[in-house]
Amino acid sequence: MKDYIRYPHVEGVASRQAHADLPKGSYEREMGKEGFFGPASFFYHRHPPTGWTSFEGPLRPHAFDLNRIARGPASPWEAPVLLGNAHCQLRYWEPGGAMDHLVRNADGDQLLFVHRGAAELYCDFGHLAVTAGDYLVLPRGTMWRLDGVADLALLAIEACNATFMLPDKGLLGPHALFDPAMLDVPKMDEAFRAQQGEGEWRVRIKCRGQVSTATFPFNPLDATGWHGDLAACRINVRDFRPVMSHRYHLPPSAHTTFVTPRFVVCTFVPRPFETDPGAIKIPFFHNNDDYDEVIFYHAGDFFSRDNIRPGMVTYHPAGFTHGPHPKALQRMLVQSKPATDEVAVMVDCRDPLEIGAAASAVEWGGYVDSWKGGGA
Ligand SMILES: [Fe+2]
């Protein structure tokens, strides 16, 4: 038996409920364990917790503009790793041309998020058309390629030595956020059969970070059929039905889409803001105490961030206090809009991430100063 040391307590001038009825003019900051699942306390500050006049040292937030990354190679294994650790690898991939080979990831499950463009997926399980806003889960070992990749841009998230799973929806029930029946599986259709043949094909297999190549005198995507309960699958963010409350600002974890043992993927999709006068309408300040936090901005207006546009990534290492940017905070205090139209992918990692050279090359160096000016 074990349990957290918990001692709910209210001290001084404070709200008794998280994210609601803040003392007048105060700024709420959360300090907590295990993301938003463990014990936590909420401080009601007189000044914005990001109101520093300077910030020195290695604990720095980062922002990367992936729009500045040149169109890349035909293989995802040559796409640059932006951020990574032993459990998670994030790559950004704009194929420079059609894939003339198959690939297979022997290191872990692959999650592709289609940021822009469209393509035809051919894989062990059949054929599937993919388009912007799609998540595509490719189980470890799947042979695949993408065809017709005009203007395609992907965020590739690898669960190293692990499996992408769906989160426990708890009180919401298993059909919340999106019904698992919305997960599309490839079909062994006419297009799949048409790409089979006796020509030479290479399969580039990534294992332990190194690539090996198997060459076949035929296309190894030659199955006539399959059965089982493991498959590639696809869901589009348009099919998400997010939960929200008019009286309670839900934490980011309410938008969890996929989970692995050492990181989670959350998706922020368009949703109305809270309407209760006492409920906060903006993300609360917090320290990110246990998780490195990465957000990829896909579409819309990112309501808690200034100067961030689609195709950018922010990276807040664990321990870095953050919250709404000053202009975003100001906008929200006057509540000028009834809803957010943002679409963003968040990857929260339990272990520290390393920044790759390709990300460093497109870093916006002034990001750390973007909270300057008090945050209000
Ligand atoms: Fe955060």
| Ends distance | 45 Å
Order of helices and strands: EEEEEEEEEEEEHEEEEEEEEEHEEEH
Number of helical segments with 4 or more residues? 3
Global outline: elongated
Walk me through what this model shows.
Helix content is 5%, strand content 33%. The chain has a 7-stranded antiparallel sheet with strand order 15-10-7-12-5-4-24. A 6-stranded antiparallel sheet has the order 3-21-20-23-17-16, with no helix packed on it. Strands 9-8-11-6-13-14 form a 6-stranded mixed sheet, with no helix packed on it. The chain is elongated and about 75 Å long. It starts with 26 loop residues before the first strand and ends in a 16-residue tail after the last helix. It binds fe (ii) ion (FE2).
Brief synopsis:
This protein has 376 residues and is mainly beta.
Detail the topology: elements first, then pairings:
Layout: E1 27-32, E2 40-45, E3 62-65, E4 81-84, E5 88-93, E6 102-105, E7 108-116, E8 118-123, E9 126-131, E10 134-138, E11 143-147, E12 153-160, H1 190-194, E13 201-207, E14 210-216, E15 233-236, E16 256-259, E17 263-268, E18 271-272, E19 285-286, E20 292-299, E21 312-316, H2 326-333, E22 339-340, E23 343-349, E24 354-355, H3 357-360
Parallel strand pairs: 1-19, 6-13
Antiparallel strand pairs: 1-2, 3-21, 4-5, 4-24, 5-12, 6-11, 7-10, 7-12, 8-9, 8-11, 10-15, 13-14, 16-17, 17-23, 18-22, 20-21, 20-23
This protein binds fe (ii) ion (FE2).
